[in-house]
Write a structure and sequence with these properties.
about 650 residues; alpha/beta; eight-stranded mixed sheet; five-stranded parallel sheet; 18 strands; about 40% helix
């Protein structure tokens, strides 16, 4: 037998062994992930999110092309398909795409990114047969430089003439973007445009410089106003965001050499803002902020210092904690649920929340106040179950590294914010990652704390009844349905975007398309409101219908998970059938497209007496069900009262 050849021993490690630079180590991990199809690195997403070197992140984004989020994130976002994102620019923006990919992978989101040809933005937006239109993006990012607004031969001595030209170009861009959003249902993002230093310096008089600044800001205001008022169109205030970015907006050598209008730091700032927008398009804004108390909502330790000894008020460091409370209150007013999870005595906590003169947040601002000595990850998991939410809806903020680590380990889908160091930076740490970003606010958002407090009460009532039907009858459920109006339309758009479990087709019509359908006599958009003995749940569902002469078609039906298992979906379907029957429609057709996440909706049509058609699944896997409205039996269970906004009636 021949002895095996000796192998070289691994080189010894010692305190003097060189440690690779952080950037080199990050790229090494990414390369290992890319080259090993079965390899995972669950901490890599966090490392990408923490990195600040734009050149490093651009290289990381290039290497990560084709790598899925589940390989580098402990809790990737569960979506039926990658988010489709288009990038169209008036300048060379090739490096923005890998930066955007890195930012979205850091958020656990898989994407498919399409880049439009250079400097064809308006044509791509306006041509129905363009590459951009054919891609059918969920989000279209329109990147602009000063040349998009400013003529090459502009005359600094004739600024009055320039004002109309710049404003007109801004309005043309906004009109093209809004038209694309209306045709396709995509969410389109414009941004304000910084004016580079050479153009500012071209005007030598102080009055002229002031006039140039005014007319430029008027053009940017037009872009911002379009994002406020045009359906499906949104505007990022990039000019304001860049106030915190070091260095110039444009490197003149890069610009003259390759028409690269942004420096790497500007590209990174935009990519992260755009990634937050894309997360909002995907409905991934988090809903609940869970806060510790000691050295988080106030300075000091309540159990040691007593209510009178904690730090709050107008003097440092107490003013830092007061500011954080103001920021949390602002989030609550925009629909974010606030909760407390603290290792403290409940009676002392209640005393401070209700009576301390410097407290900004009061008991009514919280959906739950959990003060005990239990593990925080377990208490947050129990709260999520009570509220009918998943851990990925939560953000947890605490000053303790131990508690942050425990929640991060026990609830990997939750976001964790470690409020360490000087409390002057706590507010920015809480807000900077854009955890709570959403496309728009609705009336329901302002009432969300009360709605979810009622939900916890419903959960407790359920445990007091011997059977589910007894519980449902005791609730006194009332379902009110009517045609969508200006107040309910934004909420319906938000619901279709965020709802995955009971979304019959998984599709998202978007803001512009939903409004167009609601205004069309050939279509119908319905809003569903649910209330019970504990109060109103608000608008929790919507129906998008086509009203044809030979049949009505339910394009989509969505229902919030918080009212599932109550029979609401059957009541909604009954209402749609009654409307179709009253209009004389001989057939009612329902569409269902399995997405992998909407299994709770799969049985609705078969259980209601609809028949599956014989033509098989469509190209997207969609199934078609048919029924004659007059042949359908009463569908709403007897514990539901069904009301119509137009003509109230009862079941």
């Amino acid at each position: 037998m021949t002895a095996a050849a000796p192998t070289d021993p691994a080189p010894p490690t010692s305190p003097t062994s060189p440690i690779p630079p952080p950037g080199e180590e990050l790229l090494r991990r990414i390369t290992a992930l890319r080259d090993g199809p079965g390899h995972t690195d669950r901490d890599l997403a966090a490392a990408l999110g923490a990195a600040e070197d734009p050149l490093l992140l651009a290289e990381a984004g290039r290497l990560l092309e084709g790598v899925t989020a589940d390989r580098l994130s402990p809790a990737p976002v569960r979506r039926p398909r990658p988010l489709r994102i288009a990038v169209a620019a008036t300048f060379t923006a090739d490096d923005v795409v890998p930066l955007l990919r890195a930012a979205l992978l850091a958020a656990g989101l898989d994407t498919e990114i399409h880049t439009c040809p250079y400097d064809r933005l308006v044509l791509e937006l306006t041509d129905p047969h363009s590459e951009l239109a054919a891609f059918r993006p969920d989000a279209a990012l329109c990147l602009l430089d000063a040349a998009a607004l400013l003529p090459r031969d502009w005359d600094p001595s004739r600024l009055d003439d320039l004002a109309g030209t710049v404003r007109g170009r801004a309005e043309t861009l906004a009109g093209a973007a809004a038209g694309f959003a209306a045709r396709t249902g995509a969410a389109v993002l414009l941004h304000t445009v910084p004016l580079p230093r050479p153009d500012r310096a071209a005007v030598i008089s102080h009055r002229g410089a002031a006039a140039l600044g005014r007319l430029w800001r008027e053009a940017n205001i037009a872009l911002l106003a379009a994002g406020e008022t045009r359906d499906g169109l949104h505007t990022l205030d990039l000019e304001a965001a860049l106030a915190d970015v070091p260095g110039p907006v444009r490197d003149e050598r890069r610009y003259r050499f390759g028409r690269m209008s942004w420096t790497p730091h500007t590209e990174l700032a935009y990519a992260r803002e755009a990634a937050a927008f894309c997360r909002a398009v995907a409905g991934l804004g988090r809903k609940v902020l869970v806060l510790d108390l000691d050295n988080t909502l106030w300075g000091g330790v309540l159990g040691d210092d007593g209510p009178a000894g904690i730090e709050l008020g107008t003097l440092y460091p107490g003013d830092c904690y007061t500011d954080l409370q103001h920021r949390a209150l602002a989030l609550r007013r925009q629909g974010v649920l606030l909760a407390v999870c603290s290792k403290n005595e409940q009676s002392l906590v209640d005393e401070v929340l209700a009576g301390h003169p410097d407290m900004v947040l009061r008991p009514e601002d919280f959906v739950a106040v959990l003060a005990d000595w239990e593990r925080k990850d377990l208490r947050i998991a129990a709260l999520a179950e009570e509220l009918g939410l998943t851990p990925e809806a939560f953000v947890f903020a605490d000053d303790s590294a131990f508690e942050c680590g425990m929640v991060r380990e026990g609830l990997p889908a939750a976001a964790v914010v470690h409020l360490d160091g000087d409390p002057a930076g706590h507010s920015l740490k809480l807000l900077a990652p854009a955890h709570f970003t959403q496309l728009g606010a609705t009336a329901t958002d302002a009432e969300r704390t009360a709605l979810y407090r009622d939900r916890r009460a419903r959960t407790r009532l359920r445990t007091e009844h011997a059977s589910a039907e007894d519980y449902l009858r005791d609730l006194g459920i009332r379902v009110t349905i009517g045609e969508a109006d200006a107040f309910s339309l934004p909420r319906l758009v938000q619901l279709e975007l965020r709802t995955n479990q009971f979304n019959l087709t998984g599709r998202v019509h978007g803001d512009a398309a939903t409004r167009r359908l609601a205004e069309s006599p050939e279509h119908l958009v319905l809003a569903v409101d649910v209330a019970d003995r504990f109060g109103s749940e608000g608008i929790v569902g919507g129906v998008w219908l086509d009203r044809g002469t030979d049949r009505w078609v339910i394009r989509n039906l969505v229902l919030s998970c918080r009212v599932l298992s109550r029979g609401v979906e059957q009541a909604v379907l009954q209402y749609a059938a009654e409307r179709a029957r009253a209009a004389g429609a001989p057939l009612l057709e329902g569409l269902h497209t399995p997405t992998g996440r909407n299994r709770p909706a799969a049985g609705l049509y078969p259980s209601a007496g609809f028949d599956l058609t014989d033509d098989g699944p469509g190209p997207d896997g969609s199934l078609r069900y048919l029924a004659r409205p007059e042949a359908l039996a009463a569908l709403a269970p007897d514990w539901i009262t069904l009301d119509s906004k137009e003509a109230p009636h009862h079941v």
